[in-house]
Design a protein that fits this description.
Strand content: 15-25%
Helix content: 25-40%
Structural class: alpha+beta
Order of helices and strands: EEHEEEHHHHH
Largest sheet: 5 strands, mixed
Distance between the termini: 59 Å
Number of strands: 5
Number of helices: 6
Strand order of the largest sheet: 2-1-5-3-4
Length: 178
């Protein structure tokens, strides 16, 4: 006799149904059943943010959600952020700002910023810092991530410089290609 639960939800724009134990964590479902590995399994207690996904438009820690909790939900994994205008801007800006060194935490930060900018595109720095409060990075001093967030806001307003100047303005010493 199986204790599996049939769960229906939307994942990256597609309707999905999966059978899994009710207590299976969403991060494990994403990684093991759908081969979506951008959401990381780091702390597994909701403190680091590396497992973040969008659930019904809100940034959530997928290590804290279980299968029964996602019934009927709209889930966007970090892999699908490019389908969201704010997600595209965030990803482009974080890359231009050379916001991360190792990149392990990058998907979680991108999800958190995307959720914030969808809700508050004109968020000030204190709001950005608050939105990122659940994300940890062991490699940076966070200033490059904040520069990337500010650049994403400019991209969304259409105020960003031409691509060739984007990296220089973001504080990068890398040479940009047009």
């Amino acid at each position: 006799m199986s204790n599996d639960l049939a769960v229906r939800f939307r994942l990256n724009g597609e309707e999905r149904t999966i059978s899994a134990p009710a207590d299976t964590r969403l991060v494990d479902l994403l990684r093991e059943n759908f081969a979506l590995t951008a959401a990381k399994t780091a702390c597994r207690i909701g403190r680091c943010g590396s497992c973040m996904v969008l659930m019904n438009g809100h940034a959530v820690n997928s290590c804290l959600l279980t299968a029964w909790q996602i019934e009927g939900a709209d889930i966007v994994s970090p892999e699908a952020l490019a389908a969201v205008p704010e997600g595209r801007a965030v990803r482009e800006a974080l890359v231009a700002a050379v916001a991360f060194q190792c990149g392990y935490c990058a998907p979680g930060f991108a999800v958190a910023l995307t959720a914030l900018l969808r809700r508050r595109p004109d968020a000030d720095e204190s709001e950005v810092r608050a939105a990122l409060g659940g994300n940890l990075c062991r490699c940076t001093g966070y200033s490059s991530i904040l520069r990337g967030a500010a650049l994403a806001q400019r991209l969304l307003r259409g105020e960003a410089p031409a691509q060739s100047a984007l990296r220089a303005e973001a504080g990068s010493t890398a040479i940009a290609k047009d």
